[in-house]
Amino acid sequence: MAVAGAGGQVGKEPALRPPRRRSDGQSMTEFALVAPLLFLILLVTIDFGRLVYTYGVITSSARDSARALSLKINQATDCSAYQLAEQTAQGFQLKPDQASMVGDTNPNGPGGSLQPTTPPPGQGYIYIWPAVATASPQDQHPGCDGQARLPASAQLKDVSVQIEYTYQPLIPVFQDFTGSFTIKAISVVHTEY
């Protein structure tokens, strides 16, 4: 059917659009399905970032302590190395393992009488071997007993500092799957004395 338009022209009748279907709830439903997955990816990213940061701090702390022990200038003792490791740990709880302090042994050594203990979650233990503590002055550090120790040997060529930190994921669901696990950082430095 032709319709006369303005000026007497005959044209086609305007096409009617099909009725619009209502899809307001579709986007909310899609978001509700995708949001938990996005949230899970965010949490995994945060926990993985914490893990990488923890490893970096623990490694740096072990390296700084080993370097301090290797310098002839300051003649650092075991206890001062423990203090330095605690100070450079940026808030992570580190302390000397009492089993390590008894015999100053390598916690990785096979068949040694002293075996390292696993630190509780959120804490770390520091091991130093061989012992480089000096007999005087005596250290009065909370982790050290204050008793005089043998002076460093002139034949000592390398000193090692090992830090074992028990990392616990922040998210309880991940704790159920992975539990807590130990991050280990070892720094071996050639001595300058």
Structure write-up:
This protein has one domain (31-190). The chain has helices at residues 24-70, 78-87, 98-103, 172-178, and strands at 3-4, 10-11, 93-96, 123-129, 158-167, 181-190. Helix content is 36%, strand content 18%. The strands form two sheets. A four-stranded mixed sheet has the order 3-4-5-6. It has a two-stranded antiparallel sheet with strand order 1-2. Helix 1 runs antiparallel to helix 2. It is an alpha+beta fold and 193 residues long.
Q: Main sheet: which strands, in order across?
A: 3-4-5-6
Low-confidence parts lasting 5 or more residues at pLDDT below 50? 132-143, 147-151
Mean pLDDT: 74
Give the domain tally.
1
Rg result: 32 Å
Level of helix content? 25-40%
Structural class, please?
A: alpha+beta
Shape, principal axes of CA atoms: elongated
Name its key features:
193 residues; four-stranded mixed sheet; 18% strand; single chain; two-stranded antiparallel sheet; alpha+beta
Briefly characterize the structure.
The protein is of the alpha+beta class and 193 residues long. Helices cover 36% and strands 18% of the residues. Strand 1 and strand 2 form a beta hairpin.
Give me the secondary-structure topology:
Layout (H helix, E strand, L loop, with lengths): L2 E2 L5 E2 L12 H47 L7 H10 L5 E4 L1 H6 L19 E7 L28 E10 L4 H7 L2 E10 L3
Helix pairs in contact: 1-2
